[in-house]
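Hey team,

Sharing the Nicotinamidase run so nobody has to redo it. Sequence (201 residues) first:
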Amino acid sequence: MKALVLVDVQNDFMPGGKLAVPKGDEIVPVINSIQSKFDLIVATQDWHPENHISFANNHLGKEEFDTIQVEGITQVLWPAHCVQDSKGADFHKDLNTAKIEAIFRKGTNPRIDSYSGFYDNAHLKSTGLSGYLKEKGVSEVYFCGLATDICVYYTLKDAIAEGFTSYLIEDASKPLDVEEYEKIKKVILDLGGKIIQSNNL
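Structure output:
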């Protein structure tokens, strides 16, 4: 059984958003065009409280994109984004959400960030995504969304560790940092992940 996981296709990651991914909106029609090829579609949603530890404005004297240490983990300080129940946290208005069967929210704990759709960054708490996919009998998981080099990457990496055959749909995703993504591509392949284009489906 094949599942499609839409990672954080949210307004704040789109051009004009609080943490905009360049050309992030260009993936929306691609994602809409491939949905019919999957047995199951789920989505992740960044869903932060206002006092989230990853927000630069919650740290006196710190600037956006500075780093701090949290429980031994390096934390980038981001612009406040995807605050719970805000317009920025909503899915992009043109995304076809009718076929999404479940939404897994992440980053809800104010004390720790969660790039992956499976676990928080310390791997202390599961979102329930792995159990859900296994219960549905999913063996192959395809990932797309924003940003390729951060949340899509961490989600895909955890999927591989959970035993799923994992694919990145490259043209249905966009990176925040293109140079970083070029390094990450090699890591994905080395871990056993596969990188494809939407026309390969």
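The first strand starts at residue 2 and ends at 7.

Ping me if you want the raw files.
A.
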